[in-house]
Amino acid sequence: MSTVNISLPHGQLKQVDSFVEQFGFANRSEFIRSLLRLVARDPELVKEAATFPFVSPKERSTKKILADFTKTKRYSKEFLKDLKEGLLQSDYFS
User: Fold this and answer.
1) Is 37 found in the same domain as 19?
2) Which pLDDT does position 47 carry in this prediction?
3) The model's pTM
4) Which of 12, 63, 73, 94 qualifies as a cystine partner to 8, CB 3.0-4.6 A?
5) Would you state the pLDDT for residue 9?
6) What is the per-residue pLDDT for 64?
7) Is 60 in contact with 94 (CB distance < 8 Å)?
8) Structural domain harbouring 61
9) Which DSSP string do the residues of 11-29 spell out, in sequence order?
10) CA 79 to CA 87: how far, in whole Å?
C-alpha cells in the first residue's frame, strides 16, 4: 500500500476526526479510502465536488428565472432589468 500526504485546514481535520469517531472508522486513512470507494461508485460526486459550493443552477430558462424573481416582488425594476441583461449575455441560460 502506498502512502499519500495531504494538507488540510484545522477545521477540516477536526471534521475528518469527528466522522472517524462518529461512524466507527478504524482511522483517518480508512475514512479517506471509504470516500474514494464511494466516489468510484458515483463519479457524479466528483463533478459536484469540483464546483462546490458554486453549483450551476438547474433552471436555464431566462423567462422562468425572471418570472420567479418578479413573482417575489422583492426586486426593483432596475435590478430585474440588469438580471435580464446578464442572463441574456450568458451562454449557460436560454
Assistant:
1) yes
2) 84
3) 0.58
4) 12
5) 96
6) 96
7) yes
8) 56-94
9) HHHHHHHHHHHHHT-SSHH
10) 12
* pLDDT for the residue numbered 4: 93
Distance CA 64, CA 66 (A): 5
What average pLDDT does this structure show over 19-34?
97
Q: Hey, what's the cell of 64?
A: 422562468
| Whether residues 60 and 29 fall in one domain | no
C-alpha cell belonging to residue 73: 416582488
**In the 8-state DSSP scheme, what is residue 92?**
S
pLDDT tens column, 32-88: 999 999 999 998 888 888 888 887 788 999 999 999 999 999 999 999 999 999 999
Q: How far is residue 25's CA from residue 17's CA, in Å, rounded to a whole number?
A: 9
Say if 18 falls within a structural domain. Answer: yes
- Within 8 A by CB and 6+ apart from 59, the residues are 65, 68
Whether the CB-CB separation of 77 and 87 falls below 8 Å is answered with no
